[in-house]
C-alpha cells in the first residue's frame, strides 16, 4: 500500500506541476508578459514544484529528515547523475559565464546550508536546526539570485532571439489547469510523504536515507527528463543551466520556505551528506575549469555517475 501511495503521489505531483505550469504560462502570455520572464519564473517553479511540495508537506507533518533529505539528495542527484547521464549522451560545453559566476554561486549555496545546519558544531547548541531565521536568510539569497538571473537574461536577450512557443488556452481552461494542478500537487505531496515514511518504517531504514535516495530521485524526474531530451536534441548545455537553476531554487527557495513555515530538526542528515553536496558542486566546477576546454566529457560524466553510486552504497551500509 505504501508503494502505491508513493507512486500515486509522484504521478499526481508530476501531473499537477505540468498543469499548473501550462495554465499559469497561458495566462501570463495572455497579459503579454515576455516569454523570458515566464521561463525564469513559472517554468522554473514548475520543474522544482515536486521538491517544494514534498519538502513543505514533510515539514508540516513533522518529517524534517525527508524535507531536508529531499533537497540535499535532489541536488546531489542533479549534479552527479543528471549531468553524468547527459554527458554520456553528448559532451556538455559550459559557457565562461556559467563557470565563473553560476557554478560558484551553486557552491556558495551548499556552503551556506552547511553553515546553517551546523548549530552543534558552531554554536554548541543541543541539536542542529534549520530555524525560521535560517529559512528567511535563504529566502533573501533567493531574491538576490532571482534579481541576478533577470539581469543576465535581459542583457543577453537579442531582438532576433526565438522565443519558446507557449500554448495559449481559453481563460476558463487556464484557471481550471491552475486549480487542478495545485490540488494535485497538495494531494500528491501528502500521499508521497505518507508512502515514503511507511516504506522507511517497514524496511527499518531511517527517513533521512529514504529522503536522500528514493524521494530525491523521484522528485528530480522533471530535471532528468529535461536534460536527457536536451541531449538527444543536441542541446546538452541546457543540462547545466537546468541543474544549477534547480539546485539554487531547491536550497534557497524550497528549504527557505520549509524552514520559514516550521523549524526543521536535523536528526538523520549528517555532515557527510552536506559535504558530499558541497563536493559534488566543486567537482563539477573543477571538471569544467581544468579539463577538455570547458567541456564535461563522457569520461568525466562516467566519474560523476560512479561518485553517486559510491555515495548511495555508503548511505545504505551506514
Automatic annotation (TrEMBL):
It is found in: Membrane. One of its GO terms (cellular component) is plasma membrane. InterPro entries: K/Na/Ca-exchanger, NaCa_Exmemb, NCX_ion-bd_dom_sf. The keyword Transmembrane helix applies. One of its GO terms (molecular function) is calcium channel activity. GO terms for biological process: intracellular calcium ion homeostasis. The keyword Membrane applies. It is a multi-pass membrane protein. It comes from the Bacteria. Keywords: Membrane, Transmembrane, Transmembrane helix. It holds the Pfam family Na_Ca_ex. Residues 3-149, 174-316 form the Sodium/calcium exchanger membrane region domain. The chain crosses the membrane at residues 76-94, 103-121, 136-154, 175-193, 209-232, 239-262, 274-292, 299-317. Its main location: membrane. This is Sodium/calcium exchanger membrane region domain-containing protein. It comes from Bacteroides oleiciplenus YIT 12058.
